[in-house]
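Hi R.,

As promised on Friday, here is the backbone we talked about, encoded as C-alpha cells. Could you run it through your design pipeline when you get a chance and send me back a sequence?
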C-alpha cells in the first residue's frame, strides 16, 4: 500500500520511524511533527524522489501537500500516475 511506503520514507527521512508507523492517513504533519522543519521538508522531498523515482518541481508543492500523511500520499499517487 502506498501509504505504508510513504510512512517508511517519512520515518526514515525525519528519523521518527517508530512514531510514524503509529500514524494513519489523517495524521497531521506540518506544524504537528516538530522534526518537520523547512530543512527537513527539503530532505523529505529528496528522499521521496529517490524512493519513488519521481521528480518534484518547486512550484508543485505547498504547505497543503504536507498537511497530513494522506495529503502527502495523494501527492505521490498523482506523481506516479502522471
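Update: got your reply. Pasting your designed sequence below so it's all in one thread:
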Amino acid at each position: 500500500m502506498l501509504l505504508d511506503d510513504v510512512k517508511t520514507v517519512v520515518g526514515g527521512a525525519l528519523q521518527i520511524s517508530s512514531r510514524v508507523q503509529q500514524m494513519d492517513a489523517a495524521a497531521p504533519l506540518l506544524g504537528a511533527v516538530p522534526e518537520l522543519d523547512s530543512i527537513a521538508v527539503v530532505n523529505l522531498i529528496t528522499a521521496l524522489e529517490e524512493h519513488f523515482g519521481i521528480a518534484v518541481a518547486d512550484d508543485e508543492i505547498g504547505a497543503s501537500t504536507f498537511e497530513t500523511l494522506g495529503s502527502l500520499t495523494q501527492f505521490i499517487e498523482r506523481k506516479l500516475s502522471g
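One thing I noticed while checking it: The chain has a mean pLDDT of 96.

Thanks again,
M.
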